[in-house]
């Protein structure tokens, strides 16, 4: 289940303070691209988790 809109309205990326897009099991920062996992309906808003998601996305894109 995606994060509720009420919660999404108050959450921001802990790294750059930008808003987040709500995917099924991930929140994605619209500015820096960090991806924060959602586990058991709880967003894991740790910069380290977002860095992992960003690195994975960059690797898949060919290191751009």
Describe the 3D structure.
With 64 residues, the chain is an alpha+beta fold. A four-stranded antiparallel β-sheet has the order 1-2-3-4. β2 and β3 form a beta hairpin. It is globular and about 35 Å long. The termini are far apart. The model has no long low-confidence stretch (mean pLDDT 88).
Spell out the blueprint of helices and strands:
Layout: H1 5-10, E1 20-22, E2 26-29, E3 35-39, E4 42-43, H2 47-60
Antiparallel strand pairs: 1-2, 2-3, 3-4
| Rg, nearest Å | 11 Å
What pattern of helices and strands is seen along the backbone? HEEEEH
Largest sheet: 4 strands, antiparallel
Average pLDDT: 88
Write down how many β-strands occur, each being a DSSP E stretch of 2 or more residues: 4
SS class: alpha+beta
Count the helices. How many? 2
What is the general shape?
globular
What fraction of the residues are assigned to beta strands by DSSP? 15-25%
Residue share in helices? 25-40%
The low-pLDDT segments are: none
Strand order of the largest sheet: 1-2-3-4
Multimeric status of the protein: single chain
Distance between the termini: 31 Å
Question: Features of this protein?
Answer:
64 residues, 2 helices, 31% helix, 4 strands, four-stranded antiparallel sheet, alpha+beta, single chain
């Amino acid at each position: 289940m995606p994060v509720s809109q009420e919660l999404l309205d108050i959450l921001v990326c802990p790294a750059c303070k930008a808003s987040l897009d709500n995917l099924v099991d991930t929140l994605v920062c619209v500015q820096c691209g960090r991806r924060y996992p959602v586990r058991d309906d709880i967003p894991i808003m740790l910069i380290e988790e977002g860095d992992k998601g960003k690195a994975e996305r960059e690797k898949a894109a060919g290191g751009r």
